[in-house]
C-alpha cells in the first residue's frame, strides 16, 4: 500500500497558522512524524490560495525538503501553485487532482506529463460525483484514461480516485466507492492504479469514532484492490491494520 500522508492540510488550525506565520518548525515536525510512521509521500493541501498560491507552495516545499526525502503531492486547484511545487520537487511528485470536468481535464494532465508527475484523477465530471460505481468507472474508462494516454502520461503514473463520501449523511453511497475500485480493476488489463482519500468517510463523525470507521473502510477498499491511500499515518491502529493485511 502506497501511503500519502494527509496531515499538512490547510483545514487544520495548526497548519493554517503555521503557513500564515511561516512557522517552519511546525511544518517540519509534521512532515518528519508522518515519514517516520510510514508515509511514502506527503500531501500538501493549501486550499485555493488565489492570491499567494505559488509563494505559499514554494515556502512549503523548501521547508519540507530540508528535513525529509519523499515525494510531495500538490493538493490545490491553483495551477500556478502546483507548477511552483513541481519545479522544486526533488522526488517524483503527484498532482492532486484532475477530474473529467472539461477545464481541469484540459489543463492538468499536460502539467503532469510535462513534469513526469503522478496524477490523481477523480471519477467525476462537470455534473458532480456520480451515484453509482458503474457511472464512476465509465468516466474513468471513457474520459480520464484516454486523456492521460493522449498527453503521454504512463499508466503507472495515473491513480484513479473513486471518491469516498462520508457515512454521515451519505452512508448508502459508501459501498459505491468500494465497488468502483473493484470494477475498474476488472475492466482493463493491466489494471489501472487506484487511490482513495480515506478520511472523507468519517467526516462529520464524532472524533472518538473516526479511526474505527477509517480503518474498517480501508480494509474493504484493500479487499477490492486499492493501491494507494491518502490517510493519517499518525493513526497507529490504522497503520497496524495496513501492516497486518500486507503481511498476511
Judging by the overall fold, what is the CATH architecture of the largest domain? Answer: Alpha-Beta Barrel
Q: Order of strands in the sheet with the most strands? A: 1-2-3-4-5-6-7-8
**Strand portion:** 15-25%
Radius of gyration over all CA atoms, rounded: 17 Å
Helix and strand string, N-terminal first?
EHHEHEHEHEHEHHEHEH
Number of helices: 10
CATH-defined topology of the largest domain: TIM Barrel
Enumerate the spans where pLDDT stays under 50 for 5 or more consecutive residues.
none
Helix content: 40-55%
Gross morphology is globular
Mind sketching the topology for me?
Elements: E1 2-9, H1 13-21, H2 24-36, E2 41-45, H3 53-65, E3 71-75, H4 79-88, E4 94-98, H5 102-114, E5 118-122, H6 133-151, E6 158-161, H7 167-170, H8 174-187, E7 193-197, H9 207-224, E8 228-231, H10 236-246
Parallel strand pairs: 1-2, 1-8, 2-3, 3-4, 4-5, 5-6, 6-7, 7-8
Helix pairs in contact: 1-2, 3-4, 5-6, 6-8, 9-10
Quick tags:
50% helix; eight-stranded parallel barrel; alpha/beta; 8 strands; globular; 248 residues; 2 domains; TIM Barrel; 10 helices
Any overview of this molecule?
By secondary structure, this protein is α/β, with parallel strands linked by helices. The chain has 2 domains: 1-91; 97-248, Alpha-Beta Barrel (TIM Barrel), CATH 3.20.20.20. Helices cover 50% and strands 17% of the residues. The protein has 10 helices and 8 strands. The chain has helices at 13-21, 24-36, 53-65, 79-88, 102-114, 133-151, 167-170, 174-187, 207-224, 236-246; strands at residues 2-9, 41-45, 71-75, 94-98, 118-122, 158-161, 193-197, 228-231. It has an 8-stranded parallel beta barrel with strand order 1-2-3-4-5-6-7-8, surrounded by 5 helices. Strand 2 (41-45), helix 3 (53-65) and strand 3 form a beta-alpha-beta unit. Helix 5 packs across helix 6 (133-151). It is globular, with a radius of gyration of 17 Å. The mean pLDDT is 97.
Amino acid at each position: 500500500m502506497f501511503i500519502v500522508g494527509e496531515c499538512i492540510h490547510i483545514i487544520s488550525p495548526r497548519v493554517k497558522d503555521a503557513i500564515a506565520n511561516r512557522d517552519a518548525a511546525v511544518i517540519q515536525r509534521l512532515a518528519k512524524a508522518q515519514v517516520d510512521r510510514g508515509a511514502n509521500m506527503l500531501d500538501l493541501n493549501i486550499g485555493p490560495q488565489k492570491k499567494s498560491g505559488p509563494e505559499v507552495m514554494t515556502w512549503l516545499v523548501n521547508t519540507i525538503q530540508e528535513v525529509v526525502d519523499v515525494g510531495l503531492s500538490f493538493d490545490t486547484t491553483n495551477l500556478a501553485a502546483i507548477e511552483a511545487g513541481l519545479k522544486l520537487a526533488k522526488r517524483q511528485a503527484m498532482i492532486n487532482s484532475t477530474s473529467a470536468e472539461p477545464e481541469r481535464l484540459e489543463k492538468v494532465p499536460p502539467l503532469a506529463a510535462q513534469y513526469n508527475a503522478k496524477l490523481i484523477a477523480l471519477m467525476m465530471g462537470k455534473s458532480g460525483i456520480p451515484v453509482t460505481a458503474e457511472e464512476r468507472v465509465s468516466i474513468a474508462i471513457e474520459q480520464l484514461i484516454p486523456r492521460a494516454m493522449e498527453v503521454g502520461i504512463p499508466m503507472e503514473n495515473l491513480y484513479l480516485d473513486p471518491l469516498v463520501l462520508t457515512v454521515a449523511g451519505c452512508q448508502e453511497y459508501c459501498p459505491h466507492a468500494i465497488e468502483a475500485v473493484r470494477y475498474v480493476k476488472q475492466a482493463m488489463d493491466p489494471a489501472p492504479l487506484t487511490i482513495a482519500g480515506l478520511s472523507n468517510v468519517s467526516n462529520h463523525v464524532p472524533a472518538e469514532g473516526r479511526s474505527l470507521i477509517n480503518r474498517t473502510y480501508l480494509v474493504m477498499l484493500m479487499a477490492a484492490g486499492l493501491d494507494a491511500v491518502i490517510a493519517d499515518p499518525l493513526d497507529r491502529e490504522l497503520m497496524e491494520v495496513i501492516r497486518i493485511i500486507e503481511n498476511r
